[in-house]
Amino acid sequence: MVPLKLAVAAFLVVGLVVNTVAEDPYRFFEWNVTYGTIYPLGVPQQGILINGQFPGPDIYSVTNDNIIINVFNSLDEPFLLSWNGIQNRRNSFEDGVYGTTCPIPPGKNFTYILQMKDQIGSYYYFPSLAFHKAAGGFGGIKILSRPRIPVPFPDPADDYTVLIGDWYKKNHTALKAILDGGKKLPFPDGILINGRGPNGVSFTVEQGKTYRLRISNVGLQNSLNFRIEGHKMKLVEVEGTHTLQTTYSSLDVHVGQTYSVLITADQEAKDHYIVVSSRFTSQVLTTTGVLHYSNSNTPVSGPPPGGPTIQIDWSLNQARSIRTNLSASGPRPNPQGSYHYGMINTTRTIRLASSAGQVNGKQRYAVNSVSFVPLDTPLKLLDYFKVGGFRVGSISDAPSGGGIFLDTSVLGTDYRQFIEIVFENTEDIVQSWHLNGYSFWVVGMDGGQWTQASRNGYNLRDAVARCTTQVYPKSWTAIYIALDNVGMWNLRTEFWARQYLGQQLYMRVYTTSTSLRDEYPIPRNARLCGKVAGRHTRPL
Questions:
Q1: Are 214 and 260 in contact (CB under 8 A)?
Q2: Dihedral over Cα of 174, 176, 182, 186: its sign
Q3: Whose CA is closest to 505, among 426, 440, 434?
Q4: CA 231, 61, 496, 469 torsion-angle sign
Q5: Which residues, listed in sequence order, are joined to residue 336 by a DSSP beta bridge?
Q6: FRET pair for 466, CA 20 to 30 Å: which of 7, 300, 336, 394?
Q7: For residue 256, with 0-12 CB atoms within 10 Å meaning exposed, 13-18 middle and 19 or more buried, which class applies?
Q8: Phi, psi (deg, nearest 5) at residue 147
């Protein structure tokens, strides 16, 4: 019955999209989300599969493509998918987090209507509800440039998605129960590469050819270092930005981040280790894959090559070396450097400090002392239907220094402002922050306390634009954002237990004169739940 339901739903959704951007191509996907038994670390556990696959299938697209994904939820609990790095321009209704989108009930379907508007690059999708991310349900997203837009490197011989991340042997339900009980999660049990444990995945290459690897850290908490025995990696793209083509022997990939590198099969024709290891942990987790030369009869042998472990300065210097290629085209033919972000005056500075503590005897995490609690209805829908129930401005622009308290934190911002956000980390961990709906310029990062004098060291010429940035221990990171995308957008830590226990907020980007030019109306197929259940998505 499920395939028939999927087919019928895909047919019906055509009527929902025919009035959108007709000149851009459509790509249709039908996904059935199920539980399945998986063995990534050698023991059976419950995984979340998409069309029977773990990880899920890649989404392949081209700039401006319309992506229609009909998702049927065959789980026994509500489900949502979100699209890490996809900006969903003018359409936060489709963002797939609980603050914007009603969950898909068990046994029901929902059709996401996305457009890869003015985007290129490498991203991923993941399940955003409960603690589903710890069970799978994630996959890669590739957005290629349009045929007439120049790309600053030749076409590779092949293009591989590489999903890396820490992993637990416990089911996601057991991990969620630990968090719901007010406790911290234990240290992860291992690291996966494309859903497989040590030496469980292999990438085949031909001698002399060059390949593209799109490396995403889809894990729950740990920064990871990626390296390939005997091979250099040329960085070419970071979350939609073509970068200066710097060569690295290993690359730190923080939680939620994606890097695109080129490797050339120019070494001895044998199998070579691919190594992923944890960073900044007292116990170092390591896993391996295989780079297999097609003419090789020699398997990997000996110990895999080591990498950096706890060195902060090494990672900070590497992060500062990642810069925008100003002369390369992005999604449009004009050079990426034609937007001079460093010459625009910021109109507002927002300082966001992370913290951890206890509330009512249970572990919580906060931003500017506010630990986020969700409402029974997505904030975007409460806002759209003018129901209320939350307060814009419930989180301050700067740390208060007070203790942690619970609230539904919504930060009000004005459409078309150009603002500065400073992430402040007084803790001993590496943080990783993501903003849905946007790409921002990472203009500075350093140790110690941020002050206004810190701006003297900002990179105002070729800072990389991306959607996820790290903040090192007892350090700060500053970003610039052009608020050109109306909506309700999730700003969160990518440390998933912390996100689950309150270290997130929503940024309401608003204009008093919203028109179709600024924001699309609510989709006709939008699910309505909670306090807006039973309402119409369009005026009668």
A1: yes
A2: positive
A3: 434
A4: positive
A5: none
A6: 394
A7: buried
A8: -55, -35
